[in-house]
Amino acid sequence: MARRLLGKEVTAALNEKIKENVAALKAKGISPTLGIVRVGEREDDLSYERGATKRCETLGVACEKYLLPADVTQEKLVEVIHQVNQDDKIHGVLIFRPLPKHLDEAAVIQALAPEKDVDGITDGSMVGVFAGTKQGFPPCTPQACMEILDHYGIDCTGKKAVVVGRSLVVGKPAAMMLLKKNATVTVCHTRTVDMPSVVKEADIVIVAAGRAGVVDDRYVSSGQTVIDVGINVNEEGKLCGDVAYDKVEPVVKAITPVPGGVGSVTTSVLVGHVVEAAMRKYSI
Ligand code: NAD
């Protein structure tokens, strides 16, 4: 039976560190604050917002919401972004995406100041991930994967790592982060030929394909650590990952469940970034 890599254990450890840093900031009269920019009322956004707001509350981080109607103009939205950029009380900003189709999402993202980009969406943050510098912040989900590996003492040095998926939000930054940890990294995608044999060779597998159960027992081998980033809803209305858990778990050495794996860690990583943004601002 595989070791279950539980998100809640990682989250608990991260939360302790975050609380210490919040206390250090508050002792200096600084209240770390997340600005949430939401356009419209998409159910996905509302659900993520509830989770993020609750985690902020638990950890002593304030939230300021900027709620705009679904038909907001580009000019108005960019004006709000400029306003939060300039507001010294806001340390990090979360902008829900995708934005409605009439808006130029790329232009909105680039209007955000990289030092407040706690969700890692600006070009500045990407440069930080690719160059290994502390510019902006890495995207929260791939960082959550790295936090899980670190917490459970899974050393990447010299190991073969495979990332399934090449999105800018998860796959590509995850590959760069594994590289920084000295893994030998391969990225698989929809055009990869004979993916099962590529994935089978890996010591560490991160799956972010956005397809329920795409990695099953044909893809895995004993001794592997599998991190499942996927969040899907199956025919029975239940949450499931991109890994066919029931088929893969009996084969591999360690695996994250869905739910209960990467998702909950992601929210604490986000709140941790807000706190770090405030600490960087005041050189604490
Ligand atoms: P995406 O759709 O932007 O990208 C998916 C990538 O996987 C693409 O590069 C595509 O080429 C590749 N892919 C798709 N099908 C494949 C297949 N059959 N074989 C190989 N490669 C394939 O998705 P994303 O934004 O990267 O998200 C991936 C998954 O992670 C989704 O299920 C999403 O819901 C989930 N997600 C979870 C969190 C979290 O906090 N846990 C956060 C973001 C995304």
TrEMBL record:
<dbReference type="GO" id="GO:0004477">
    <property type="term" value="F:methenyltetrahydrofolate cyclohydrolase activity"/>
</dbReference>
<comment type="function">
    <text>Catalyzes the oxidation of 5,10-methylenetetrahydrofolate to 5,10-methenyltetrahydrofolate and then the hydrolysis of 5,10-methenyltetrahydrofolate to 10-formyltetrahydrofolate.</text>
</comment>
<dbReference type="InterPro" id="IPR000672">
    <property type="entry name" value="THF_DH/CycHdrlase"/>
</dbReference>
<dbReference type="InterPro" id="IPR046346">
    <property type="entry name" value="Aminoacid_DH-like_N_sf"/>
</dbReference>
<dbReference type="GO" id="GO:0009086">
    <property type="term" value="P:methionine biosynthetic process"/>
</dbReference>
<comment type="subunit">
    <text>Homodimer.</text>
</comment>
<dbReference type="GO" id="GO:0035999">
    <property type="term" value="P:tetrahydrofolate interconversion"/>
</dbReference>
<keyword id="KW-0511">Multifunctional enzyme</keyword>
<feature type="domain" description="Tetrahydrofolate dehydrogenase/cyclohydrolase catalytic">
    <location>
        <begin position="6"/>
        <end position="119"/>
    </location>
</feature>
<keyword id="KW-0378">Hydrolase</keyword>
<protein>
    <recommendedName>
        <fullName>Bifunctional protein FolD</fullName>
        <ecNumber>1.5.1.5</ecNumber>
        <ecNumber>3.5.4.9</ecNumber>
    </recommendedName>
</protein>
<comment type="pathway">
    <text>One-carbon metabolism; tetrahydrofolate interconversion.</text>
</comment>
<dbReference type="InterPro" id="IPR020630">
    <property type="entry name" value="THF_DH/CycHdrlase_cat_dom"/>
</dbReference>
<dbReference type="GO" id="GO:0004488">
    <property type="term" value="F:methylenetetrahydrofolate dehydrogenase (NADP+) activity"/>
</dbReference>
<keyword id="KW-0368">Histidine biosynthesis</keyword>
<dbReference type="GO" id="GO:0006164">
    <property type="term" value="P:purine nucleotide biosynthetic process"/>
</dbReference>
<keyword id="KW-0560">Oxidoreductase</keyword>
<dbReference type="GO" id="GO:0005829">
    <property type="term" value="C:cytosol"/>
</dbReference>
<keyword id="KW-0521">NADP</keyword>
<dbReference type="InterPro" id="IPR036291">
    <property type="entry name" value="NAD(P)-bd_dom_sf"/>
</dbReference>
<dbReference type="GO" id="GO:0000105">
    <property type="term" value="P:L-histidine biosynthetic process"/>
</dbReference>
<keyword id="KW-0486">Methionine biosynthesis</keyword>
<keyword id="KW-0658">Purine biosynthesis</keyword>
<dbReference type="Pfam" id="PF02882">
    <property type="entry name" value="THF_DHG_CYH_C"/>
</dbReference>
<dbReference type="InterPro" id="IPR020631">
    <property type="entry name" value="THF_DH/CycHdrlase_NAD-bd_dom"/>
</dbReference>
<dbReference type="Pfam" id="PF00763">
    <property type="entry name" value="THF_DHG_CYH"/>
</dbReference>
<feature type="binding site">
    <location>
        <begin position="165"/>
        <end position="167"/>
    </location>
    <ligand>
        <name>NADP(+)</name>
    </ligand>
</feature>
<keyword id="KW-0554">One-carbon metabolism</keyword>
<feature type="domain" description="Tetrahydrofolate dehydrogenase/cyclohydrolase NAD(P)-binding">
    <location>
        <begin position="139"/>
        <end position="281"/>
    </location>
</feature>
<feature type="binding site">
    <location>
        <position position="231"/>
    </location>
    <ligand>
        <name>NADP(+)</name>
    </ligand>
</feature>
<comment type="similarity">
    <text>Belongs to the tetrahydrofolate dehydrogenase/cyclohydrolase family.</text>
</comment>
<keyword id="KW-0028">Amino-acid biosynthesis</keyword>
